[in-house]
Amino acid sequence: MAKGNTPHKLEPDSGQDSTRERWQRDYQAQLPTETPVVNRSGIRINPLYDETNWSGTRYTEQLGYPGQIPMTRGIYPSMHRGRTWSQRQLIGFGVPADYNARLHKLLESGVSAVSLIPCNSVYRGFDADQVPRELLGTCGVVLNTVDDMDACFSSVDIAQLSTAQNDPSPFTLLALLLAVAKRRGIPWTRITGTSNQSDYISHYVANHMFFRLALPGARRMLVDHIAFTLEQVPGWNPLSIVGQHMQQAGATPAEAMAFTLCTAIQYARDCIDRGLDPELFFPRFTFFFDISISLFEEIAKFRAGRRIWTSIVRDTFGVKNPKAWRFKFHAQTSGVDLTRQQPLNNISRVTAQAIAGILGGLQSLHTDAYDEVLCVPTEDAARIAINTQNILREEAHLTDVIDPLGGSYYVETLTDQMEDKIREVMDTVESAGGMYKAVQEGIVQTRIGESALGFQSSLDTGEQTLVGVNAYELEGVEPPVATLERPGKESVTQYLEGLDAYKQSRDTPAVARALDELATAANSERQNVFAGVVAAATAGATHGEIVALLRQEFGTGDPLIVP
Amino acid sequence: MSSDLVARLRRGDRAVLARAISVAENGGAKAQALLERIGPANVSHPVVGITGTSGAGKSTLIDQLVAELRARGRTVAVVAIDPSSPFSGGAVLGDRCRMSRHQADQGVYIRSLSARGGTGGVSAGVDRVIQVLQTSRFDLILVETVGAGQSEIDIREIADTCIVVCTPNSGDDIQAIKSGILEIADILVANKSDLAGSDKNVGQLIMAQSLPSNARPIPVLSTIATTGEGVDTLAERLLELCRSERAMETTDMRTSARRRLAGAVARKLERHLIDAHDDDFEQIAASVDRGECVIDEAAARWVRKVTDSH
Amino acid sequence: MRTPPRVLVTKIGLDGHDRGSRLVAAALRDAGMEVIYTPPWQDVEDVVRLAQDEDVDVVGVSSLATDHLLVPSLMAALKRENLNHVGVVVGGIVPHDEEALLIAAGVSRVFHPGSPMEEITREVSQLAASARQQAPELLE
After folding, report:
1. Which of A193, B101, C33, C39 has the greatest number of CB atoms lying within 10 Å of its CB?
2. What is the pLDDT of residue B272?
3. CA of B31: which chain C residue's CA is closest?
4. A437: nearest CA in chain B?
């Protein structure tokens, strides 16, 4: 937001006219000239809000009660008082044994759900023996086979733990998890979690690293994935529509929300075209957002998003199941707001971001560690991140009241304005023929790029402060340089040897057959390709083998790069 | 020495080619010396200009077209021109992002150029660059520029064949653009033919052609560049057209050498008139200043004066 | 320098986050340079080919995770192709001890996150000038 920096001038109280006008005059006298304050989404922010901005007379229409349309105040009647948000922390590093060790520590500290972050090599669709070994395991866990997945969750009851698999199409990691479940005799109906990176459009636009299969193939895979899990893994959320990548790439909060909702509409249409029942699949749509440090803007963004989504599902798609109207979302504090300079400041930043998310009514939260920009989070930093959530909930009592900012003149006005902004952006996408078409044209990417440049320029000019970077700098102190925790050389070597041994000892003909069948499914009109992926994983195929095969059949994902 | 340079260019020495292009682009005495050494190419491979508004899908189309041409055994050079910033003179040249699958192909050479302030999307050095490329013996030279129709007359000066790419719902004044396009185009491509309004777009393009009795109708081809649909037909038509232009000997102003020469003369004349103070010209300019006649009439008057004095 | 510097902005290795490299490309353009921008995941050989075909003065590599560990092989490949004169800078997350490794391999400068854009453009501009001076004469 732009700063105002003008001198004060006091005037005596003149007394007689209406208090509002008097306030306006006095304000004007104190601040005769002022740079307008504008938030990240481009909405102008006034110094004060009152009933002339929002009067609450349309409470039922605009707010409603928690769990009732339009859901502005929350999707459940009891919200965080009934069930606190999932503290879902991300972990991923090194080799499976490393992951398992971290997992146990996290479970001890009170985490109820985990996210699995695979190595960049896995994201790019490769097995560990296909990339230069110095690139392995620094940013995520190297995980290629069912044995690896088993080792990651060694001594952990996967029937009791909700896992978010950060794995894009073709979702081999879920397939490997299901293979482990089979091995352990756990019925798939007891497996819960989310395919966290199922939103291929967001990858195409703003996280190219996750985009593995060409667009039409990715489109097919998603619907197959949804269809399969609806039927066979009913506790699993196959779809998480991600606003985070776009906001991290520079989209304003309103744009991120708008593009995400448009993506959701696109996927819903694709599911309907396939013949899936909206009453059944909508409840399985979940969302994943960034929370920036623009506190009130984020709260308003989430409240507006909730309201818009309810009307989309209920009114536009005509769905009757109230469970389908719920805007369920996981949120992560924004890494882009964090700095390398004076990194402890990031604790304050994450706290502010977390407050915004909690007051915005999220269902699941990941708080970044303060050293996130420097390295894979150390244990201490990871603990502080979790305790931030514990403190906000149990010491600051942020959850005592549902939607505590409801009725605030400012927050309600801003929620309405964010809704307008979001709908405006949604219109540009819909008039381009929907999200799938819009991203092929590059419309979305161009807009995000412009917003990114705009924000960067506000940092360059100092209009937007970034403490420690363009203001409040520590003279003569070099900011810490990043360290990169590397998995031990021996553990990587051991892993690679293990991978080799695995390939030698498995039932090679069975794997070949399963991969063949997968290729057949991919080329068919109607066969469920994800079912083929699960079958291949169960037969012993590796992640890299499955992705390579599907790239052959569907084409390799080549996101549109808009420089 | 010179013959060695030419030999290296003909052999496909990429390092020499890349450097020669830089020298040619940068102009001045060095460029002149280089072009003199290289000499005329003695063989003219087709130069195909590809223009259209930004967002029409030109780069994606070229990517597919190159694939089709390669499948037909042709080697291709692509010159991708992007506009430069009017403030800084710099440029981000990203067209080749859409063509990255051809990166490792030795039969394809892609060079990104900035318009370097040139209006009309074609830089002044492009014809020098093309001269260098002709010596390096690529079967076809594709030149991609940004255009908005009427200001793209420049592309005609350097290209033998012009492909103009349009899309439905381009949002501009359709008629105005199309009348400009039709002066330039040898092939019209209606891209994004999967979008609504495409049939109407194609229809308008066909109807808008007013045909003098001896002119060839301009083919209108539909494509979807993102999937490659229709690009095989485009490749066929293009190769056909290049073959027939070579074979044709006409006095039609659309013949490339004459047209290109006329354009080059016009550019040099413009520079001369501005720099060199021609008395006749100055007199007429003064009368325009005084409001005694309009520019168009004054220009016609000047041309008559010059051409009548023979 | 009368003609604008030509800079290749690229990413090698596995990472695909390109917000940073896009911002640098824009800054270089605003400083009057011609930027050839590539998608991420370029092979080292791709980068060398591009540097040669586009006759660039400087190559800017944006790196996250351990992608920078591939840069020494890029330096070797540039040398092999007689492109030693091309200046190379790396931007991204690079630990101290590995920064020294890169400099020893011939990288001119490593920029950490938060480096001011003017510093980056100034350095690239200077490198481009020396690249031009040192470029081998190929057309004799």
Report:
1. C33
2. 79
3. C139
4. B195
